[in-house]
């Protein structure tokens, strides 16, 4: 499939011509055009948004390369004015209704989230003598990569209960997903390496990590935002300071507790970054 026509073809799979006809009839709108129809306007608007066309004139000039018909730029403006707002409102509602829960949730973030965490199951010492834990208990630790979109684990590794989370977590990374992890997985050398090799991450920082050369990021401040700060910096004391500058977002959770996360994801708002980390709590529900 031509890359220029992928988006309109995908849209047609979600919203068929029959769907459009049903909606236009419901609002008593008759489409007089045979060349620049409601469907054409939808395809034009979708491509214009994704490819950031500068104007109607620019869009009309490049439209034929995207398998759209040739038309004068004024045709787009006139069509947009002519079509009742109710049609677009109902089309939007239809698209949302046709997205399943997984799709609706994944649309919130640039890539799928991969929550990495662990839980320890303990039993009496004599039942698992090969897995000593603490005192008179034995323990098995389950390290899990969990998908909040699917609400199920994607990978799992079993170890004895005393095995540290950090080293095992390296086997649960995925280059096409955003890692979401707690403080147990935080290590300055590790996040520098992630930034180097392109592994996206959102990891909670340890409380005693020093912040160096802080630079505030510009953002639109909302009165109901739970974000306290959003900035880039280097992390750690001079002997072991990060080589890379990382983004740090500080926010308050539902209980008012201050949470600090470090990330190399820069194309989402600080509020959405807070949402990403708070998705991590879904794995704790799974463990229960």
Automatic annotation (TrEMBL):
**Where on the tree of life does the source sit, at the highest rank?**
Bacteria
Give an example GO biological process: DNA transposition
Q: Name one GO molecular function term.
A: transposase activity
Assigned keywords, A-Z = DNA recombination, DNA-binding, Transposition
Key word Isomerase present in the record? no
| Presence of the UniProt keyword DNA-binding in the record | yes
Which part of the chain is the Transposase IS4-like domain?
110-288
Family statement: Belongs to the transposase 11 family.
Q: Which PANTHER family match?
A: TRANSPOSASE INSL FOR INSERTION SEQUENCE ELEMENT IS186A-RELATED
**Protein known as:** Transposase DDE domain protein
Q: Which organism is it from?
A: Anoxybacillus thermarum
């Amino acid at each position: 499939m031509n890359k220029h026509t992928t988006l309109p073809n995908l849209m047609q799979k979600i919203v068929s011509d029959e769907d459009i006809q049903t909606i236009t009839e419901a609002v008593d709108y008759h489409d007089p055009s045979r060349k620049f129809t409601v469907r054409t306007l939808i395809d034009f608007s979708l491509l214009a948004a994704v490819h950031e066309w500068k104007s109607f004139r620019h869009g009309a000039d490049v439209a034929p390369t995207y398998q759209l018909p040739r038309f004068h730029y004024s045709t787009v403006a006139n069509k947009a004015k002519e079509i009742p707002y109710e049609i677009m409102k109902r089309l939007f509602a239809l698209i949302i209704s046709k997205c399943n829960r997984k799709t609706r949730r994944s649309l919130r973030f640039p890539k799928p989230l991969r929550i990495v965490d662990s839980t320890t199951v303990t039993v009496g010492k004599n039942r698992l003598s090969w897995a000593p834990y603490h005192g008179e208990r034995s323990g098995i630790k389950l390290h899990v990569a969990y998908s909040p979109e699917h609400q199920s684990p994607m990978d799992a590794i079993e170890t004895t209960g005393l095995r540290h989370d950090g080293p095992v977590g390296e086997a649960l990374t995925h280059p096409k997903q955003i890692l979401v992890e707690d403080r147990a997985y935080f290590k300055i050398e590790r996040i520098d390496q992630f930034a180097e090799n392109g592994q996206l991450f959102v990891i909670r920082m340890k409380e005693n990590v020093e912040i160096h050369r802080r630079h505030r990021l510009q953002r639109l401040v909302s009165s109901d935002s739970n974000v306290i700060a959003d900035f880039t910096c280097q992390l750690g004391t001079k002997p072991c300071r990060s080589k890379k500058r990382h983004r740090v977002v500080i926010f308050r959770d539902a209980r008012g507790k201050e949470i600090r996360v470090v990330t190399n994801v820069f194309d989402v708002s600080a509020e959405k970054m807070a949402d990403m980390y708070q998705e991590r709590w879904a794995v704790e529900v799974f463990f229960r």
